[in-house]
Amino acid sequence: MRDLFVVGVVFGLLPLAFSRPYIGLYLYSWLSYMNPHRLAWGFASTMPFAYIVAVTTLVGLLFSKEPKRMPWTREMTVLALFILWTVVTTVFAFFSDLAWEQMEKIFKIQIMIFLTPLVITNRERLHGLVWVIALSLGFYGVKGGISTITNGGVYRIQGPEGTFIAGNNEIALALLMTIPLMRYLQLQEKRKWLHLGLGGAMILTALAAIGSQSRGALVGAVVMGTIFWLKSRNKFLSTIMIVAAVGLVAAIMPQEWYDRMSTIKTYEQDQSTQGRVNAWWTAWNVAKDRPTGGGFEMFRGPIFRIYAPEPENVHDVHSVYFEVLGEHGFVGLGLWLLLALLTWLTGSWVIRNAKRDPEKRWAADLAAMGQVSMIGYFSAGAFLGLAYFDLYYHILMIIVLAKVIMLQEAKAKPHVEVDIAEKRGRASGMRRLA
Q: Vertex 432, ends 430 and 434: CA angle to 5°?
């Protein structure tokens, strides 16, 4: 039944994805973030739905009569340079076959990221994209929060198998990044029942992230929660939600969770943490030795035996920073960090120029909550290897588009006012003639 439902939704919406490419992007985002086919038990679980939707959307874009203008902002330019640099590092990768296979996956993701500003051309479409992402990942947040409450936090929250967010650490990061998007939607929502529902979903999603029992998620939640409160327009309501979430954690989580979280203080004796540090030193040594880094998929035994302080302690890198550094060198890391910095500065510009204008406040809210998501990614991601997670790049695009669309609306508004004034003038003249 689940298989038929997913197939029916996807193929039922394909004609719309072709005629209206922004709907194709919505559908692709739903498949990428919720991965509904991975919840099926039959033939649908292995069907390449995302590929089918992506191709349909791209072909539809070619035939679409809508203007196709890529806003080549500084962020878009730096992202393009970063992608080009990863092609260079792949050419010189330690493990060529594995690197090209990973490059293909990353390139497919980035095609859809670059498609976003081509089809999301107004506020309504951008708002819709945020809704799709929030609902897709919010499904696991609400479900995981309820599971954490009913099971007393005994079982770890996991994502769907075979996806970016399969592990407890990965789903925790995705959920943390989703909470600010829910808050943006709540700020724009006028219907009281939906406003309250989004508030409850935020609390449950935060509880699900903690219920993942990820130590990185705890660090990310603390840091992001602080920035969330500072960036929030209504600090009183934000305080209530944060206190409610903390209170639920204190009341629900078992002693085993506290014992696991306490190991953050004693990381020197934690074997897993020491393995990560060894991988971080490996990344540093490779970057010092090779300008292009080691290429995708470099964190393997043969490389550790050459570059690691502890050659036999082979461990996944578990850090977005050292993942990029090891695989793409200092140039790659510099471009990657520059992209984040420029996007953050764009978000700050939007907040300064929009927060006092009721017509533009939506953009200020979106930019502020986008920055909070970035903080969640960079704090929890310090202990997690998700440097190429498409949600992060979509967050960057959302912040950039908040500025692009806000400026477009401001530019169009004077013309509307002139047209109205001209029509009023003509009407007045007609009355005088009469």
A: 70
